[in-house]
Amino acid sequence: MIYEHPEPDAPLTQGDIITGCPLVFWRHDPGQPDPRSVQSTATVVVLTQACDLAQAKAGRTLAAVVHQVRFLVDSGLLKAATIRDQVRAHRVYGWYFLPAGPGVDESLVDLRDLHTLPRSLLEQLIRAGHRTARIATPYREHLAQHFTTTYARIALPEPYPTDPDI
């Protein structure tokens, strides 16, 4: 199974899915000179390496926003066919598919919507019962690999020129 359900007192680790996490987003409206911050809550998944969390090397954690698939489709942000044919197969950089499971709706991790959060905030949310699940190994490592591929890939500005006669 892709998900584990750790005990409420289990420590924070990579792959923890936490609901109700307070976040600040920046919004910039065209025609307005300055961006403004918008406060909201969201579901997040912890991306910070498990070893850094276990050894208390990380006072701040990296987390990505998790969106329910139904919301993305119903609001017209993504087509069901795109999710079914491309995202589920992990062919789209920046999105990671999470299937439905106990305590988790079918969701997408938005690896381009990252937030650095105080570790203590996430630990407080866990104590308050906001951890819904933990992504189990090897799926957690697959998510980490997808995250690194999203940011480590090297693209060329244009394809190499080719000799049309070959």
Give your account of this protein's structure:
The protein has 166 residues and is of the alpha+beta class. It has a single domain (15-152), classed as Roll (SH3 type barrels), CATH 2.30.30.110. 25% of the residues lie in helices and 33% in strands. The chain has five helices and seven strands; from the N terminus they run E-E-E-H-E-H-H-E-E-H-E-H. The protein has a seven-stranded antiparallel beta sheet. Strand 2 (16-27) and strand 3 (36-46) form a beta hairpin. The chain is globular, with a radius of gyration of 18 Å. The protein starts with a strand and ends in a 14-residue tail after the last helix. The mean pLDDT is 90.
Ends: how far apart?
50 Å
Which stretches are poorly predicted, pLDDT < 50 over at least 5 residues? none
CATH topology grouping = SH3 type barrels
Radius of gyration: 18 Å
- For the secondary structure, the number of strands is 7
Shape: globular
CATH class membership:
Mainly Beta
* Tally of alpha and pi helices: 5
Strand order of the largest sheet: 1-7-2-3-4-6-5
Binned, the helix content reads: 25-40%
Helix-strand pattern = EEEHEHHEEHEH
Class of secondary structure makeup: alpha+beta
Question: What can be said about the biggest beta sheet?
Answer: 7 strands, antiparallel
Strand content: 25-35%
